[in-house]
Amino acid sequence: MLVLVNPNAGKGKYRQELGEVLKTFCEGGWSPTVCFTRKPGDAPGLVAEAAPDYDMVVCLGGDGTLSETAAGMMLSGAPCPIGYIPLGTANDVAKTLGLSVHPLESAQRIIAGKPLPFDLGQFGTDRYFSYIAAFGAFTEVSYATPQEAKQALGHLAYMLEAMRRLTQLTSYHAVVEHDGGVLEGDFLFGAVTNSTSVGGLMQLDPQLVDLSDGKLEILLVHTPQDLLDLSDIIGSIMRMDFSGPNVDFLHSAGVRFRFDRPVAWTRDGEDGGTHQEADIRVRHPGVEIMV
Question: What is the DSSP letter of 99?
């Protein structure tokens, strides 16, 4: 077993838990090798090189660490199951999968669990995401929030950054091509997801989301024309009722966005770059995550 640790996640929580986690793995019959990431972007290369030599890769970190681990697994050509011990702030994937946020309990569940097929999203030709690629309102919050604030304040840091950006909301004109047709309009927010928890701020009905069906979910929020529209949008999202005119909810194996200007994206809570066109496809089968 390769145990990959992001030392910056969760206020350095691994320091108190890693010893007992490794002891649990050893008692469960595994031979763990520990590797630490040194900077963002380390994990894909480490996992891609190491995966063929291991029976399982376990990552300790946030959703971004899991995303990088999954990307490395796709690049490895020799995928093995992934164990995830969530130490992050939002932990959207952990909420979706019902994983424990207590490291020792997570380790025990990994040993006793079974692999669940989990589709990934492919952004362009060589970038992947495990649960969300998004643009628009609040999508910059997760990676614009300083790491020091995340570690000190946890989820409150995200909320404070979101409140600061309320006066900076922007409309984006886009043509959206998906399996069922084409949409064109002005959008406040757009997300392509494979998750029931989005950014720690929004929940989707688990009955609407299948993590391994070869489809991604697309959520588009139209730009409100007045306060009545804005109230309808907030109500629709809170009720998870997407039948109204201001919110579109779609299932598609692929989607292409064409904007009238470059637009900033986020992938799994990290900076996803600026793109005037974005081509997103599902990778099915993707990876296997122990649950």
Answer: -
Structural domains of the chain ordered from first start: 2-113 (3.40.50.10330), 129-285 (2.60.200.40)
Q: What is the CA radius of gyration of the chain?
A: 19
**Which tokens in the block code for residue 255?**
């989607």
pLDDT of residue 156: 44
Instruction: Tell me what pLDDT residue 140 has.
Output: 52
- DSSP output for 115-143: EEEEEEEEETTTEEESSEEEEETTTTHHH
Segment 221-254, tens digit of pLDDT: 898 887 787 777 777 777 778 888 888 999 999 9
Model confidence at 136: pLDDT above 90: no
Residue pair 101/79 in contact (Cβ under 8 Å)? The answer is no
Which residues, at least 6 apart from 227, have a Cβ–Cβ distance to it below 8 Å? none
Q: Which residues pair with 222 in a beta bridge?
A: 187
The pair phi, psi for residue 18, each rounded to 5°, is -60, -40
Query: Rounded to an integer, what distance in angstroms lies between the CA atom of residue 271 and that of residue 263?
Result: 12
